[in-house]
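Quick one - first record:
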Amino acid sequence: LRGADDVPVTVFADDGELLAGDLPAERALNILRHSGFHDATANAQHLGVLEMDQWTISGNLHSSRPLHKVDVGDAAGTVVYISDVSGQIVLDTNRSERFWNWIGTTIHWIYPVQLRQNQALWTEVVVWLSVAALVSVFTGGVIGFLRIRLRRPYRGKDYSPYHGIDKWHHVLGLVSLVFLGTFLFSGLLSMSPWGLFSSSAPAAPQIERYQGTAWIGNLGEFPELDAEALAGVREVEWRQIDGQPHLLLSTSVDERFVLLPDGPREATPSPRLRERIEQALPRFLPDADLAEVRQLDEFDNYYYSTHNRYRPLPVLKARFDDAENTAFYVDLNSGQVILRHTDTSRLYRWLYNGLHSLDFIYLLERRPLWDIVLLVLSLIGLLFSMTAVMIGWRRLLQQFK
């Protein structure tokens, strides 16, 4: 069970025992043995209990800490992390993933755990390194344009005055100037420095009005789960809209049902659930009028899935005429609020997701075109950076001769 504070509470369904934390090492190993990671021929080892290491930096794991680190003992070098709070396996890594993360995520985000565990210091380091990089790109671009000659080439035919690696640096710098500059600028904006992109109205109270007040004391109002309702069910979610409860029943990854208090279960999207959603929409912003309500059966420029973030369809988009032009995207299969956008977050979407990740619908809908564009631009940027390092290293050697 997870409450509004997102802290999990685990109760065993067979005997009502409460999982109180402080799992012994043997119990953590037993959890592994009952998981899909278990290899009967391998010798699993409990490596201790920790708050954070290089692979468990993510803020998504904060409510699961402390974590048991267990070496599965398989050929892939798999390590799993088990929450001491919930008893769940919350993360797995293998040797290959850890290698690529060292030369990928860790370098890209400057993610060594010694720095990352100090959130304020890490933020300042990333922000000011980004500013320094932008100054370098801008000044280099100015010099590059000043040194190029199109009307009166150098030596009769060369547009650049440089030779060898210097010429490659000059040409690649001009070619990559725009996308390298926008990449650095959008990376800086991803940190929301100096309070940029902060909304004047937080989303949590608005969503709480739509869902209704806390219902933990009113579980008796939820529909009863009889044998017919539970046929084939693998997972049950308790939800409510405007204080009215309903259940989501999952029989598989792709098949879900809705159970309302006054009727049989219905396949999603349920017309009765949609009616509830539409009636509750004004509660998001009681002091503003609904300017638009429409169903999205396809992704648009602001509501879309990417390779590492799934979003469901269909959704109901509700846009209000408040000062921020707030829009909510509600999953018609569950009634859950998936996304909120304001004028500020829409601008952020283009300046960060657009410029940094090239999250443009035209490219995303035509993969692997998106992958090819990203790879080509990244390789050009890598070559340009390598020429800069080589020139800088050469200059340093000259100083020490």
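second record:
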Amino acid sequence: MSEARIHAVTVPKWGMAMDEGTVTVWHVAEGAAVDAGQELLDLESTKIANAIEAKRAGILRRAVAGVGTALPVGGLLGVIADANVPEAEIDSFVADFVVAAPDAEGEGAPRTATVEVGGRAIHYLDLGVGEAPIVLVHGFGGDLNAWLFNQPALAERGRTIALDLPGHGQSSGDVGEGTVAALSGTLLGFMDSLGLGAAHLVGHSLGGAIALAVAVAQPGRVRSLTLIASAGLGPEINASFIDGFLAAERRKDMTVVLGTLFADPALVTRQMVDDVLKAKRIDGAQAALARIAGACFPAGRQALDLRPSLADLAVPVQVIWGSSDAVIPAAHADGLPASVTVLRLQAGHMPHMEKAAEVTRAILAISG
């Protein structure tokens, strides 16, 4: 059966731990015409819900999985085909569809590893193959799973590497001074340890300031720069979020804090809350986060202003911001140099999760 003739819409794999997804709503009725990039349905994993987009134009000939249906990764959600494909051919495709076994050992399969950087263990996820990789740097209190909606799609085009910053995830709890300068030095050391001469850097929030600091200090190491709701571009930051994140020890409190990150707080799942609380309880994690917060956001303000440096960068730079960001003001994207491309999205502080497909396309466009 030609793939160009019939296209299967399947459950993607968002993150290493995802086994299945549940359909929560269909946005397109069976029999309706769809465009490439159009949202077809919402799918919920244990982490968060996200939209599934059409990868090609055509007609949604079958909505195979109904609302409430849980399917394994690779399971058939729907079928897109042109009007001239006979119904019998569609029926046969659906009946014969087999969920492919994951390729756990092949080239480009997910690889988790740890490298030593300045005496610190840095954990990372390496996915895809190719030169000039995309390196993904998460924000304060996050980990490499922040990119679970983006990394698999990015890896279809090349190598992608998402790391846990010091004091986060499975990396060392030693954050040194905890400053952007110290953390950017660790990022450069991480690139050295993997033999990366230059890379496309993508940073979110604090990770954006870290990536930008690398571009300023070592411009030859950066092929392009994507800053998502980035720190370092203005003085304001929501101190209540930082303080609340550090103080929250119960599920109820952390749910409220994490809800600040999203335009739609309902996207915060119980599993997300439990994962964050679990990470905070790792020995030394709370002290590491407090040290970073004190160094980077003292007295509820951002300590470092990298905004003037943008005008001097010779590499392509894009800034992505959610218009409903309640952590770092979206106004920090205003008045940037003309050389900087700005993409504004209907999202909160986590546009790479809330508008994953749009952010992924933007990253691919600048790194292609």
